[in-house]
Amino acid sequence: SDSHFPIPISPAHVDFSLHFPKFVEADNKTSKKVEFADIGCGFGGLLISLATLFPDTLMIGMELRDKVTEYVKERILALRRTSSEGQYENISVVRTNSMKYIPNYFEKGQLSKMFFLFPDPHFKEKNHRRRVISTHLLDEYAYVLRAGGIIYTITDVEELGEWMKACLEKHPMFESLTQEELDSDPVVELLCNATEEGQKVARNGGQTFRAVFRRIAYVS
Ligand code: SAM
């Protein structure tokens, strides 16, 4: 249950210095803020791919399962130890329930990318409220994303793919990326092959359904 992991009362109370020791400055604060969040990061494959693609960007995975979170922590520490070029210092993971605590971790407009890769489908209609993309949760994601920030979603479940796309399409704070923008974004190809779930789907020859949207600026 939630009582088993600490919940920061506000983003100012999150001590990221422990997560990113190489980015800590004299005042014991990190020199930059976390910009990418991988929600339900599972075993951390996406973070590991992104770490070297964006070496100067701090990124955090959020994962509900305790053992999986511990595994990702160990995996990152091992990569840091064995990297001769000082890589993987920019990625870390927290155990939390992202459906409840995103605003406890990030300030308004802090994030430039959010990832939702192969989230749990929650097929039954009465469980749709447990889906990580919903109109209500998109309000929160729009709050923590900066204008121009991007939300990436992918799934192998067609019905969930349509649901995520429909939620994003009807939300006033998001617009779809054009095909040209998708083609020129190096992150897009990672969506279906960087994570453990994506690799499993690819091995089984499964289809995937993607929705990538931009957080627009407020219209006055
Ligand atoms: N994104 C990873 C990938 O593509 O390999 C993992 C996909 S897995 C099917 C979904 C993950 O989301 C699981 O690891 C699960 O524990 C996590 N999860 C589910 N609900 C969550 C929540 N409310 N907060 C954080 N993580 C959650």
Describe the protein in words.
The chain is of the alpha/beta class. The protein has a single domain (32-215), classed as Rossmann fold (3-Layer(aba) Sandwich), CATH 3.40.50. Helix content is 32%, strand content 20%. The chain has seven helices and seven strands; from the N terminus they run E-H-E-H-E-H-E-H-E-H-E-H-H-E. The chain has helices at 45-53, 66-82, 98-105, 135-144, 158-170, 179-184, 196-203; strands at residues 34-39, 58-63, 91-95, 111-117, 145-155, 174-176, 209-215. Strands 3-2-1-4-5-7-6 form a seven-stranded mixed beta sheet, with helices on both faces. Helix 2 (66-82) links the parallel strand 2 (58-63) and strand 3. The protein is globular and about 45 Å long. The relative contact order is 0.15. The site of S-adenosylmethionine has 19 residues, from strand 2, helix 3 and helix 7. It comes from Arabidopsis arenosa. This is tRNA (guanine-N(7)-)-methyltransferase.
Reconstruct the topology from this structure.
Layout: E1 34-39, H1 45-53, E2 58-63, H2 66-82, E3 91-95, H3 98-105, E4 111-117, H4 135-144, E5 145-155, H5 158-170, E6 174-176, H6 179-184, H7 196-203, E7 209-215
Parallel strand pairs: 1-2, 1-4, 2-3, 4-5
Antiparallel strand pairs: 5-7, 6-7
The chain binds S-adenosylmethionine.
In spatial order, strands of the major sheet run 3-2-1-4-5-7-6
Helix run count:
7
Count structural domains. Answer: 1
Euclidean distance between termini CA atoms: 42 Å
Task: Output mean pLDDT.
Answer: 95
What is the quaternary state of this protein? Answer: single chain
Mind telling me the CATH superfamily name?
Vaccinia Virus protein VP39
Q: Report the principal-axis shape.
A: globular
Indicate the low-confidence ranges by residue numbers. none
Helix content: 25-40%
CATH architecture group name: 3-Layer(aba) Sandwich
Largest sheet: 7 strands, mixed
Number of strands: 7
CATH class: Alpha Beta
Q: In the CATH scheme, what's the topology name?
A: Rossmann fold
Order of helices and strands: EHEHEHEHEHEHHE
- List cofactors, ions and other ligands: S-adenosylmethionine
Structural class of the helix and strand makeup?
A: alpha/beta
